[in-house]
Specification:
The structure is a single chain. The chain is 29% helix and 22% strand. The chain is of the alpha/beta class. It has a 3-stranded mixed β-sheet with strand order 3-4-7, covered by helices on one side. It is globular, with a radius of gyration of 18 Å. The two termini are 28 Å apart. Residues 1-17 have low confidence and may be disordered.
Length: 195
């Protein structure tokens, strides 16, 4: 569905670091739903099923995910050890042995780390109510050197809608070369359903 460069929150093609931010304690009462959603994604990836056509998206998720959720195989393989460690580290919360509280900085930090990895694997922001960050949805970050032909951030046959975003940087674009952020038949707000 997307092609061109780095998809997700890595900084560069060479395996840059995942952008992590702790879940905000501002999400308060939405924390259990946010945590459940992140755990479902984690369990899904660790079960080796990298496509999730119909995930249960909680009401506290703001923005619009591009479904089905498709894991990038290379990124999934690179992050699998981290996903396994996070699964173990969060198991007491998942199993109810530790209380889930919005003031638990350790929990928020680990969930933020999990979210960062999931965002990298899926190439989509996962943002919850009350957080000051980009809306949930697909994104592409490209750090390119010299562009001699064509580089496309997001290339979709039909429609790009919702909160899709592309950020591109190139050191040089040759004369006649093309640096294209998004290409689709239609780009804009979601098309309303036909009556």
């Amino acid at each position: 569905m997307m092609r061109g460069g780095e998809v997700g929150p890595c900084r560069n093609q060479g395996g840059g670091s995942v952008i992590e931010s702790a879940l905000s304690s501002v999400i308060g009462s939405g924390l259990p739903a946010a945590m459940t959603f992140l755990f479902q994604r984690l369990d899904h990836l660790l079960s080796s099923r990298r496509s999730d056509p119909n995930p249960q998206v909680p009401a506290v998720l703001v923005g619009r995910l591009d479904l089905p959720l498709e894991a990038d195989t290379e990124r999934w393989e690179r992050h699998r050890p981290t996903l396994e460690v996070l699964s173990d580290a969060l198991s007491d919360y998942r199993d109810g042995r530790m209380p889930v509280e919005s003031g638990d900085e350790r929990l928020l930090r680990m969930l933020g780390r999990l979210r960062g990895v999931l965002e990298d694997v899926y190439g989509q922001h996962l943002t919850f109510e009350g957080e000051d960050r980009p809306l949930s949805g697909p994104f592409v970050r490209q750090d390119l050197g010299r562009v001699a032909g064509e580089a496309v951030g997001m290339d979709v046959a039909e429609e790009i809608s919702g909160s899709a975003a592309v950020t591109q940087r190139a050191t040089h674009v040759d004369s006649g070369a093309k640096l294209i952020g998004m290409r689709a038949r239609r780009i804009g707000p979601p098309t309303p359903p036909a009556l």
